[in-house]
C-alpha cells in the first residue's frame, strides 16, 4: 500500500490542492507530475498521471502532483500554460525546500508535457537543472513545446488521434531524440498503462543509450 499525503499550497492564483506519494524507504529523489489539459477533464487523478507518480515511487522517489488552477479545489482559472508553469515552479520550490539536496525529475502527460518542457528550461537557466524528464503523449503540434535534453524518456501511442505521432516526430527530428511508440495505444493509453511503467523503469537507470556507431560495432563482433 503506497502512503499518500494530501496538501495545499499557495500558488499564483490562490490555494492549490495536491498529493504526495511516498516510497517505502527514504526518498532518493523528487518527481513532479503534471496532468493533462484542465479544460478537457485533466486532473491530478488522471490514470496516466497516477501511473507516472506510482512508477517514480517504485524507483524510490517521492512524487508530487497538483491540480492546476481551476481544477478540483485549486483556486483560479486556466491560464493557457503560463500560470500553470508558475504553479509548477512553486511546487518545485516547496518540494526542494522540504527535501533539500535531492535530484528532481519532471514528468507529465499531454498538456503537462508542455508545462514541464518549459519548466525544465527555466530551472536550467537558474542553475538548478532537472535530473531527467519523462514525457508521455507529448503535446507537440497542440502547444509550443520547448526543446528537451537528449536523455529525455518520451513515450507516445501509435494510434493517438489527439496528438498525432507525426507531430511528435516533427518536433523531435531537429533534436535527434528518439521516442518509444506503443503499438495500438491511443492518447489515454487505455489497456496500455503497464507499458509506461515498464519503459520508464527500464530506462531510468540507463540514461545513455548506445549510439549508432557503437551498435554497428557490436553487430560486427
Automatic annotation (TrEMBL):
Signal peptide: none annotated. Keywords: Hydrolase. InterPro entries: AB_hydrolase_fold, Xaa-Pro-like_dom. GO terms for molecular function: hydrolase activity. Pfam families: Peptidase_S15. SUPFAM superfamilies: alpha/beta-Hydrolases (SSF53474). Residues 44-122 form the Xaa-Pro dipeptidyl-peptidase-like domain. The keyword Hydrolase applies. This is Alpha/beta hydrolase.
